[in-house]
Amino acid sequence: MAELRIVHIEIVSTGKAILSCAYCEGKGGVPSNxxxxxxxxxxxxxxxxxxxxxxxxxxxxxxxxCEGKGGVPPNxxxxxxxxxxxxxxxxxxxxxxKWRIIK
Length: 103
Ligand SMILES: [Zn+2]
Ligand SMILES: [Zn+2]
Description:
Layout: E1 9-13, E2 16-20, E3 29-31, E4 39-41, E5 50-62, E6 71-72, E7 82-83, E8 92-101
Antiparallel strand pairs: 1-2, 2-5, 3-4, 5-8, 6-7
Bound molecules: zinc ion (ZN) (2 copies).
């Protein structure tokens, strides 16, 4: 399996895996847009810090678009991020086949 620097993956059964949420770094919350001192539930994992993913093929590989971070800075405002459009915010994705985030 390719080395994943950030995302922790646990295969729970055939075709199902639990990944640590890269977008909130497993914390379940993300800073809201303007006020960084309080947080909103993570839009990727719904606040649990973990994401259940249904997939067809292993291995999971680090998402090269967000470099495994799960978030990409919008063009102008680098101080906060949006979930990565490629991996959906989980920082990794199966190498092939269909997959989806169940949560
Ligand atoms: Zn999250
Ligand atoms: Zn990504």
